[in-house]
Amino acid sequence: MHTYLVVGGSSGIGYETCRQLLSAGHQVVVIGRKQPDLPVTFFQSDVVANDTLPVWDEPLNGLVYCPGSIRLKPFKGLTASDFEEDLRINYLGLVKVLHQYHPALKRSGQASVVVFSTVAVKTGMPFHASIAGAKGAVEGLARSLAAEWAPSIRVNVVAPSLTDTPLAERLLDSDSKSEASAARHPLKQIGDAKNTASLVSWLLSDDSVFMSGQVLRPDGGISSLKV
Question: What's the pTM value of the predicted model, to 2 decimals?
Answer without folding.
Answer: 0.94
